[in-house]
Amino acid sequence: MKPLAARWLKFNGVGALGIGVQLACLAALVSGLHMNYLPATALAVEAAVLHNFVWHERFTWKDRQGGRRDTVLRLVRFHAGNGAVSILGNLALMRLLVGNLHMRYLLANGITIALCSLLNFALGEWFVFRK
């Protein structure tokens, strides 16, 4: 298997775990704490972003690790790239799907995650964890 294809599979495995984190946080915040779906989405995405960064650092792109300073720089880039795409993309799409189209919030969030994932992989490969 080609290295990029293997990395894509690892990325999706980590992403699947991150989806669980994000949806669980979103459900807890909206259904459990009765928070509005938009701020709850932002918080749930941030939890998933941090979760995914740790796993991408140690699993998906472990061959590109450096020292502590490099990790901090990658975390900043991860938030600037993947975090921004995830948070802004999720908020915009959730507003459209839930606010305008009245879709159920968990289904809508699953759709937004899928739509943002391709761009997030590209950002991870060529911006965040670049050689």
Please tally the β strands and state the result: 0
Percentage of residues in strands: under 5%
SS element count, helices:
4
Class derived from helix and strand content: mainly alpha
**Largest sheet report:** none
* Rg result: 15 Å
Tell me, what's the shape? Answer: elongated
Proportion of residues in helical segments: over 70%
Uncertain runs are: none
Average pLDDT, all residues: 94
> SSE order, as H and E?
HHHH
* Overall tally of domains: 1
What is the rounded distance between the termini? 20 Å
Task: Draw up the topology in text.
Blueprint: H1 3-32, H2 37-60, H3 68-100, H4 105-128
Molecular structure report:
The structure is a single chain. The protein has 131 residues and is mainly α. It has one domain. 85% of the residues lie in helices and 0% in strands. The protein has four helices and no strands. α1 packs antiparallel against α4 and α3 runs antiparallel to α4. The two termini are 20 Å apart.
